[in-house]
């Protein structure tokens, strides 16, 4: 095994990981981003999740609440006409073209000086006392070991946390948000409007096949350029940490997708619909969480709590998808206002040089369900990246004032 040394290593190149790696590299820290697939973007490019939530507050007049790396991504997408919105349906979100997202994330990482390793699976980590010292990456040449002064886990599954011996937990006891396979349909003319109610009605009329599918309600979006329709309906109760369980979900989800296609073809104007893609990977909403210095709670939102260590604003509501009956709820923050997210929920309680962001952030059932979305993941990622860089380069404890100052200089919105 070779041993290369970095200031910061970020595991996982989804929205959170890209936010973390760019922010870290821009402080001058030598930064490695390790991603198991061969493109960046995570759910946005590998799971047909094509709507950024969390960028706008949900009140009567939506305000932008996430800047920094997310703002630059939006700027690049807008310049290429690859994003539409903001749209309002339950919440406020934008819809993007996933192929353009791949291009833009590559570009922004390259320009920031991030060293990106695609096709590298983080399979192990070592610790010395209360610190992670190295992680191990598997690729087609075998195993390679990388050292760093600080690490950020943005894998969504918490692989680095678990392998390095950091405290984690799976979901929140009995409560684990349901997984759903994002499904993309083509062949529907742009002028044919298909609503969530149309899909629910068509699913209700499936006959005996209705029993073989799960959800009937979903956000329905149309992509820029192709006008392909994307929805999140085929669901399954599985454990994403276990490949055997995951395999069952993938196979069943694909079977459901073909039945949903039948339903969509029955909607007026949609007879020529076809399946463009499933996933390719099943969409896991919740897996492990970091056990942090302080869990973020939905009560923090309801009570409009402010934090001295606020490093980002959240805006999305507590979006819960039930594993037992496949129902969904979205609790909106009071007045649709934004809320503060503290650094403490991204900081490991037992591993001093380890942070986590995105859907790994430490939240209770509804708090975690609110701050996991991609707009917010860019922001928690950015904060973790700067924190890791600061810790690696300067050593010692985290300096919150310096962290907030750097985030502000990078365009992050903190108030
Ligand atoms: C069906 C569904 C619908 C959703 N709808 C929306 C929506 O409309 N809008 C919204 O904003 N959010 C939505 N979400 C939530 C959102 O997709 C996630 O919460 C968000 O992507 C979290 O970002 P992340 O960067 O933490 O994780 P991810 O996007 O999951 O990225 C994690 C990355 O880490 C990589 N990785 C994992 N393990 C390893 C490893 N061991 N080594 C190396 N790399 C690894 C993965 O390949 C991936 O690229 C939805 C989620 C689902 C499942």
Structure characterization notes:
The protein has helices spanning 15-26, 43-46, 68-79, 98-112, 159-163, 196-204, 243-265, 298-302, 365-371, 374-394, 400-409, and strands at residues 3-11, 31-35, 51-53, 83-89, 91-96, 115-118, 121-128, 131-139, 142-153, 168-170, 179-186, 220-222, 229-236, 274-278, 288-290, 310-314, 318-321, 328-331, 339-342, 354-356. The longest helix has 23 residues, at 243-265. It has two domains: 5-88 and 96-173 and 286-321 and 331-409, FAD/NAD(P)-binding domain (3-Layer(bba) Sandwich), CATH 3.50.50; 179-278, Alpha-Beta Plaits. α1 packs parallel to α4 (98-112) and α10 packs across α11 (400-409). The strands form six sheets. Strands 1, 2, 6, 7, 8, 9 and 20 form a seven-stranded mixed beta sheet that branches. The chain has a four-stranded antiparallel beta sheet with strand order 12-13-11-14. Strands 3-5-4 form a three-stranded antiparallel beta sheet. With 415 residues, the protein is α+β, with helices and mostly antiparallel strands. Helices cover 30% and strands 27% of the residues. β1 (3-11), α1 (15-26) and β2 (31-35) form a beta-alpha-beta unit. It binds flavin-adenine dinucleotide. Flavin-adenine dinucleotide (FAD) binds at residues 11-17, 34-37, 42-43, 47, 49, 51-54, 121-122, 154-157, 159, 179-180, 182, 232, 283-285, 358-359, 372-375, 377.
């Amino acid at each position: 095994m070779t041993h290369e040394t970095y200031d910061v290593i970020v595991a996982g190149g989804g929205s959170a990981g890209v936010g973390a790696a760019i922010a870290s590299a821009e402080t001058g820290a030598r930064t490695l981003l390790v991603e198991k697939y061969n493109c960046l973007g995570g759910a946005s490019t590998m799971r047909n999740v094509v709507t950024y939530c969390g960028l706008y507050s949900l009140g009567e007049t939506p305000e932008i609440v996430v800047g920094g790396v997310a703002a630059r991504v939006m700027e690049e997408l807008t310049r290429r006409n690859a994003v539409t919105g903001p749209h309002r349906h339950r919440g406020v979100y934008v819809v993007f073209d996933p192929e353009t997202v791949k291009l833009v994330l590559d570009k922004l990482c390259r320009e920031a000086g991030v060293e990106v390793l695609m096709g590298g699976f983080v399979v192990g980590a070592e610790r010395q006392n209360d610190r992670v010292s190295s992680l191990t990456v598997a690729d087609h040449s075998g195993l390679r070991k990388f050292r760093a002064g600080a690490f950020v886990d943005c894998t969504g599954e918490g692989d680095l946390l678990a392998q390095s011996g950091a405290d984690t937990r799976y979901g929140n006891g009995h409560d684990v948000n349901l997984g759903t396979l994002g499904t993309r349909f083509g062949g529907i003319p742009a002028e044919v409007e298909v609503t969530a109610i149309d899909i629910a009605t068509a699913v209700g009329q499936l006959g005996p096949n209705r029993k073989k599918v799960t959800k009937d309600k979903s956000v329905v979006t149309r992509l820029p350029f192709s006008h392909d329709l994307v929805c999140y309906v085929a669901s399954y109760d599985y454990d994403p940490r276990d490949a055997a369980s995951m395999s069952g979900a993938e196979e069943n989800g694909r079977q459901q997708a073909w039945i949903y296609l039948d339903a969509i073809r029955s909607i007026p104007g949609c007879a020529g619909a076809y399946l463009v893609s499933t996933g390719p990977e099943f969409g896991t909403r919740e897996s492990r969480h970091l056990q942090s210095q302080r869990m973020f709670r939905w009560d923090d939102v309801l009570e409009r709590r402010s934090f001295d260590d606020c490093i980002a604003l959240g805006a999305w509501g507590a979006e819960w998808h039930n594993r037992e009956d496949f129902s969904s709820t979205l609790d909106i923050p009071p007045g649709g206002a934004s809320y503060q997210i503290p650094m403490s929920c991204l900081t490991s309680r037992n591993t001093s040089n380890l942070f986590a962001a995105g859907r790994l952030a430490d939240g209770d059932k509804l708090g975690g369900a609110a701050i996991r979305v991609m707009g917010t993941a860019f922001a928690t990622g950015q904060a973790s990246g700067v924190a890791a860089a600061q810790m690696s380069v300067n050593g010692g404890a985290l300096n919150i004032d310096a962290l907030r100052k750097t985030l502000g200089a990078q365009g992050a919105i903190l108030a």
